[in-house]
Structures are given as C-alpha cells and as structure tokens.
Amino acid sequence: MKVLGLDPGFGDIKYSYRNENGEIINKKFSSVVAKASDKAVDMPLLEGERYYIGRTALLRSSSDVIDLFDYEKLEKVMPLFLYEVLNKLNLKPEDIDVIGTGLSFAHIEHSGSFKKRLSRFKINGQIYDFKDKIALLPQGVGAKYAIEYFLENVPDVYMIVDIGTSTIDTVDVIEGVVRPENIHGFKDEGVIRILRNIQHIIGKNFSEQISLKEAKEVLETGNYFLEGEDHDLTKEIEELKTNYTKITLSTLIERFSREFKKYRKIYFVGGGAYYIDSSVSKIIEVLDNPEFYNSIGNLLKAEEVFKNKK
C-alpha cells in the first residue's frame, strides 16, 4: 500500500506519507512554476509547454514566473506538482493506491474539474492515471483528522481556522461531525495580503516589479536580493505581520462572534497560522507545525479510503 496526503496550496505544496517504519513524514516545496524554453528538454513537458518547478522556477526572470494566485492557473499546473511529488519520492504512478487532497471551500464549485485534472494527465509523453484514486476533501476538513489523531482531550465542539497563502477556510466540528453548512471559504484573505504589501515596498524602494511568489520568498527570508546584494527588510516585514494579525483576528472575531464566545477551542492551522497571536483569546490554539495538518489529515483520510476498498 502507498497512499499520499497532498495539500496543494497557492504558496507551497505540502505532502505527507508514511516511511518504512510507519512514521508520518511531512515535506513541502514552493508551488511556483515558470515557463521554460523548448530547448530545456530535461524539464517536464505538459500539453506542449515546458516548465521549471519550485526553487528552479524562482530563479527565472520575473516575467517567466507564473503567479498561481487564481484558481484556474493552479488547476492547470496541478499535474506538474503531483509529478514533482512522485519524483521526489521515487514513485511511479502504478505505485499509488490513494491520494488524499484538499481544495479550499472558496473554490468548491471547481471540485469536479480539480479532481478530474489530477485523475489522468500526460507529462513527457507518459500517462499518469489515478482514476478512482483521488479522495478530495474541503480545505480544513483534513486538519480535523490530524487534530483528532494527534491531540488529547479534543473538545466535542471546536472550530478550525485554516489560513493559507490565498484563502482562509473555517470548519465547525460539533460532536465529532463536520456539516457542509459549517464550512466556509474566503478568497484573498490569506497571507496574500502581506505579499501584496511587500510588492508595494519593493516597487517603492527599488523600482522593481516582483511576482507574488518572489514576494513570498522575501517574506520568508526577510531579505530582498538585488544585483548581488541582500537588502534587509526585517523591520518592514515584522510591521506587516503585526498588522495582518490584528486585521485577521479582528475580522474573524467579528464574523464568528458566536463561536469565539461559545466554543471551547479554535485551532489555527495552515502556513498563515504562524502569524497569529494566541494570547488574544484563551480559546485560540496555534498548533505545532500548523502548515502540515491538512496534508497529514488528507493522508489519514486516504488510508481510510484504501482500507474500505479492500
């Protein structure tokens, strides 16, 4: 059996799997692609176009980097990211039994086409067939499986807030059950707000236009590299993080006032959870390594699906 948990975020591709000892291993790479020349024959070929993926893509010209911050662009290149995961794990398509993956509820109307896109595609002339092997969950629901797998004394009523690069997803869990009406997704409220401000700072201070993917690297390193020199933007970025935390928590508390008053726990997951100050409310808990809770939960769901298939 080989199952994978996949969290295809706009900022990073997170994936989880079990090693030979049964331990859950979590890894990630930047969900960035750039167009490659036809001469780059060692780069993956998808539907007549060659692409750079991950770190290699970030080193290309800004004009070649594809900003994957709208759903349609992300769906188009998702086969490349799954291809990259398989290569990193040295797996062939036929080695895979089930892939558990998530999709923001903000894009739930695309769930059918998203699943279809991952189910069968061709890269470098090879067909990757995962028909009936894709288990799709709303973003945040995967985290529920991980929370109940890892944590002790999980209350019977709680909320999950998943802050991604582009979206924020919320999931209510009542007596262990997630109901569809208790899942919400909000576009353009994730860490993308910080990234756009970084783009503005770079444009103002250096007269350079950078992609959102490049802004993400500046956010993570605190430096902007230009013409052989690192420019320290730590102070500006810390201010942006503080402002984002205040605005996001204020919006959530206003939007979900009942939950913040009556629920026993509100768990924050996703990469954006790192920017949340849990001291604001005693019911807030930012989980350790929050960015992997969805990929882990999607792995656990995939294992469940596989067992039911047998």
Defining key terms:
single chain, 310 residues, alpha+beta, Nucleotidyltransferase, domain 5, five-stranded mixed beta sheet, 18 strands, 36% helix
Write structural notes for this entry.
This protein is of the alpha+beta class. It has a domain at 3-139 and 293-309: 2-Layer Sandwich (Nucleotidyltransferase, domain 5). Helices cover 36% and strands 28% of the residues. It has helices at residues 55-58, 71-88, 111-119, 141-150, 192-206, 212-221, 234-255, 257-262, 293-309, and strands at 3-8, 12-18, 24-30, 33-36, 45-46, 49-53, 65-66, 98-103, 120-123, 126-129, 134-138, 157-163, 168-174, 183-186, 223-226, 229-232, 265-269, 284-286. The chain has a 5-stranded mixed β-sheet. It has a 5-stranded mixed β-sheet with strand order 14-13-12-17-18, with helices on one face. Helix 2 (71-88) packs parallel to helix 3 and helix 5 packs antiparallel against helix 7. The model has no long low-confidence stretch (mean pLDDT 92).
What portion of residues is helical? 25-40%
Average pLDDT level? 92
Show unreliable segments.
Answer: none
Give the SSE order as H and E letters: EEEEEEHEHEHEEEHEEEHHEEHHEEH
Shape: globular
Q: Any idea of the CATH class of the domain at 3-139 and 293-309?
A: Alpha Beta
By CATH, the superfamily of the domain at 3-139 and 293-309 comes out as: ATPase, nucleotide binding domain
Query: Major β-sheet, in short?
Result: 5 strands, mixed
Question: End-to-end span in angstroms?
Answer: 11 Å
How would you classify the helix and strand content by structural class? alpha+beta
CATH third-tier fold name of the domain at 3-139 and 293-309: Nucleotidyltransferase, domain 5
The tally of beta strands, per DSSP, is 18
C-alpha-based Rg, rounded:
20 Å
Number of helices: 9
CATH architecture of the domain at 3-139 and 293-309: 2-Layer Sandwich
Within the largest sheet, what's the order of strands?
Answer: 3-2-1-8-11
Please indicate the percent range of residues in DSSP E strands (runs of 2 or more). 25-35%
